[in-house]
Amino acid sequence: MFNTTAMPFVHDTSFLRLFPVSQDQSATAFNIAILSTIVGGVYALYRRATKISVAHVAGPPSESFLLGNLPELFQSQVGDADFKYQKEYGDVVRIKGAFGENRLLISDPKALQYIFHTSGYNFLKWPERTEISRVLMGRGLLWADGDIHRRQRKVMLPGFGGPEAKAFVSIFRRVGAEMTNQWADRLVSSPDQTAVFNVATWLSRATMDSIGEAAFDYQFGALMNTKNEFMEAYMGLMSDTLGSPSRSAILMQTVLPVWALQLMSKYSNRRNLKHARHTAELANAVTRQLVDSKSDALLQGKGNKDILSLLVQANASENAATKLTDEELLAQMRTILLAGHETSATTLCWVVLELARHPDIQARLRKEIRETEAAIHARGGSDFTASDLDGMPYLNAVLKESMRFHPAVYHNFRQAVKDDVLPLSQPITTTNGEVITELPIPKGLKVILSIAGYNRNQEVFGEDADVYNPERWFRDSGEKKGPNVGVYGNLLTFAGGVRTCIGWRFALYEVQALAVEIINNFELSLTPEIQKLRREACLVMIPTLEGVSWTENTQASRPCLHTFLRQSQPRSQAECSKAVALRKTSIVTPYSQVRWNSSFSKPDSDYIESIFSTPSSWNQVVAEPTSKKASQSSSSRPIDLKAQEQRAFADLFDEIFKAAEVAAASEVALTSRRGGIFTSGETSTSGTASASGMAPAFELPPASEGYKVEPDFGVGLKRPAFSSEFYDSIRRTPGKPKLAHVEDEEFDKKKEEMNLCRTDYELLDWVLVDVFAEAQVYEEEARKMDLRTRNKRNITLRPSWYPNIIACLMQTFREKYQNPHTALAIFNYAKTTSIASYAFGCSTQAYNELIETYWTCFRDVNAVLDAVKEMQVNGVKSNTKTARLIDTIRRQAPTENLWSEEEMPMILARLDATRREAGGDLTSKNYKAPGMKFLDQWKVQELRDDPYDAKGFNKW
């Protein structure tokens, strides 16, 4: 709600002198209009001239209008585009997104330090990337932003400190020994003491078992090939759901709103999304059991030292502001499971691969390991400790160089919360020849933080940054060049600042312990297939071999997924390198990773043509009219899409519609529980609400009058001729809409259903089915009734609860879930679905919520004024709540410092005019019209409550 505490009012009304009082009031009004037009035009030109843009930053030409440079970034091997752009254009590159949108690809150290560290939460994650995190891991630490992220991280920190991570080294060593023992047993049976292993699967199992014991005190049994559905679902989840995105997938993630992506992720029949949903269900079930078990142990005083036990203990606070919800707690466990085991396994794979490539480095590392082992035995120890691992300089140099050269996470995606200025390490030359040392960026700009590019920045890591060389970490200035960015070797592999990987110490000790176990027992070498190596982009960078089929041992690790994926994609790929055991002279594989195409594209046999399937139809959408004037315009032109782009665009819409169809089909028939539609014997002839609480009936216009025509609801747009009478027939009351009363029984039932939704996502899901879908079915049944009862055609097209529920939902999303964007989406959906939906749903209450959302959440005066104008154009009555809202905005606007001294008078004049047009109860004695002499009295006016404000729903 609004803050009614007024700031001291400045009694400077000098701007009023611009409008001298004249005997000719019409002339005065005309002069004001002319002056306002001039001022508005000058201001518009000023804003256009001073608008912040990054279009002048050098960058590659756009690959296509539809997708820009995104396919090259997301479909090529990791780093290919980054390294090429960095070499050609420098450390700050302008790239194109969908439909020509400007974005930045940044590898400049100083700019990265500013974004990761200095700016705090002023650069948030892209909404579409946040949704990917939610689908895979829930609303946990990798999903959260801002205050939610700060709270979650604070609760989780006790489980990821330095002492806690060091305590897990013995677990990592034990798991590593179990893995290498099984390798040795397999090698003994080999005739030539050699063998090729699918090490990708082995390392993934090993890290999963490590996570199970250290994080949950739970035995997954991955290395023992224990068959369970949970392990089968998690193996290969990243590559299955995110690998090799098609153009349609890139387009969907780029242009669709989050609610549409949520709809698709929940209802789409795509195999990769079904895999993600299935894994999420299993993970929630397993983690819930683990959380319940740890909670019971805590109550009995039997706490343990695993991460989950520490997290449950830290979350035992009674202060809701400093603890996690049940959903968040489960999400953290899913995040640790997926992000923890996948990134560690991938990092270790790249370490082993580079050691196989460089026998000299491998031999030197083995020598250091053996010397340390001898020192451990000499002091009476039995195994490596955390101090021993930290005390091996060459081991850590190898790990730093491997993480630099092959960062598991290669991109971070951020969006500027406000206009900002990026500092630069090196000056850059813009396309217009200007040399700049800092770069202004506009609010909302999307930036890609190239971790891969930074980790090979020659200004930081030397001229040989493109060469794998652990020796660089023994140079005097090896890791000290440039600003302080990362927590480990000044690398960005673990990100930095408020977004630093919370488990980086955990991951580091895990990789150290497993690497020591492998190198101490086996000698690694490469197979010829290494020439087909690919750096596959699957949210993490996975090494794969193009065109190499690999079947050994994968049946045991992922029987369902592998069998299916191998059959559907014969081009499965794996990386196979050999390793010779020192004492047994045998060969194993340092890495093997099955890769498949998880494209969103449909098989040609299943493809259904859409209206966007041909170039001609696309030309009709974007081409200008074939007039002489249009042909001379350069602002827009016909664009012929490539076949891939046509397919992507068609797939985008097909996917949305399919998800919507599945969503509707998944629910029970709504018509079986709908009630209240007037039958022929119940039809009201008076046009008022029935005794059952129905919304007012009205008479449909004949079909010839076009009642199925959608009106244009934009401000100032001409509505169909029948619209005014149409709305008047719906709002058939003396002066106010005849809405369902807040105490209406059906509305109370809806509020109870709303209260059962625990999250904004659950509420949105309920809205789509139990509000909009149900109301649509109601309308369809009403129209059928109209066809059967042409002699008695007074019917209603929306349930009695519909007018109030839209406003109630908007307020709930805005205030309860702090989600104003969804509140606006609810209004827009009700507004554009149909005439009946707009007439019943977008009531005075809903418009008041719209106005309040625009101001309280966005401080958008123009949107407020447009909403009030829209009410007037479409015949929606304003009430004292509307007037009170505008009054509040009028009081608060001068204190917001959002406009210059020149702009403020114009803003206030527009608000004053809108306030007078909005009306409301103006009978208060303290009220003075805006613009009069005693403006301070106008601040403290008292408006009588309007019984139709209908704010009763905020008490449920």
UniProtKB/TrEMBL annotation:
CDD domains in alphabetical order: CYP_FUM15-like
Biological or metabolic pathway of the protein: Secondary metabolite biosynthesis; terpenoid biosynthesis
Coiled coil ranges: none
Alphabetized InterPro entries for the sequence: Cyt_P450, Cyt_P450_E_grp-I, Cyt_P450_sf, Cytochrome_P450_monoxygenase, Mtf2-like_C
GO cellular component, one term: membrane
Entry's localization field: Membrane
Name of a matching Pfam family: p450
Cofactor(s) the protein needs: heme
Residues the record lists as binding heme: C501
Keyword flag Nucleus: no
Single annotated GO MF: heme binding
Keyword annotations: Heme, Iron, Membrane, Metal-binding, Monooxygenase, Oxidoreductase, Transmembrane, Transmembrane helix
Segments forming domain Mtf2-like C-terminal: 744-903
Family statement: Belongs to the cytochrome P450 family.
Name of this chain's protein: Mtf2-like C-terminal domain-containing protein
Lineage: Eukaryota, Fungi, Dikarya, Basidiomycota, Agaricomycotina
